[in-house]
Amino acid sequence: MIEMFDVWKTYPNGVNALQAINIKINKGEFVYVVGPSGAGKSTFIKLMYREERPTKGQIFLNGFNVEKLKERQIPQIRRNIGVVFQDYRLLPNLTAYENVSFAMEVIEAPKKLIRKRVPEVLELVGLKEKMNAMPNQLSGGEQQRVALARALVNSPSVIIADEPTGNLDPDTSWEIMDLFEKINFRGTTIVMATHNKEIVNKLRKRVIAIENGSVVRDQQRGEYGYES
């Protein structure tokens, strides 16, 4: 599903955010990416959906060399990736339904399919009754559910989540994690950067730990391993 071979990322200021990363993530895995603040987790995540590009090395997604993609090919690859952020990133002037449907409109999905698919994913995340609500009428947890629905609506093979529970209270965080587990059970690969020690230690999955830009631990059914 995702492979990195000797990947380095050096920013213009000379900071080595990542160095000599070699990772393989298989279809259907649920992977936590953990480590101290500034360790390189967000850079690691961003490289997967080409928000950032490596200084050196190769990244493959579903067999495609991400670095060698032509610009016109990038939207096609991104259809197979759903991204969920800590700050939701909903469009404030669109309803829940419109925020989710927008993700289908940008890939020019047929309107008939949009009308069928959007209510399905909003029901999956428990928000079918609030599809006409504006983001400012929704709680933080509900906004994150809309963001998750938006990530899911194009049936991606992988969901990449960067601190998806970072702005949520503990009870709501567990509700969101229940949804991620349900999505993973259906076969979608999940890669999640997180600081949430309790979630990682209770829902034991594969853990990739990054420190100072290097992978220092790659453990099946791992624990968080840091103070939080």
UniProtKB/TrEMBL annotation:
Residues 2-228 form the ABC transporter domain. SMART domains: AAA. Keywords: ATP-binding, Cell cycle, Cell division, Cell membrane, Membrane, Nucleotide-binding, Transport. InterPro entries: AAA+_ATPase (IPR003593), ABC_transporter-like_ATP-bd (IPR003439), ABC_transporter-like_CS (IPR017871), ABC_transpr_LolD-like (IPR015854), Cell_div_FtsE (IPR005286), P-loop_NTPase (IPR027417). GO terms for cellular component: plasma membrane. It holds the Pfam family ABC_tran. Part of the ABC transporter FtsEX involved in cellular division. Belongs to the ABC transporter superfamily. This is Cell division ATP-binding protein FtsE. It comes from Tepidibacillus decaturensis.
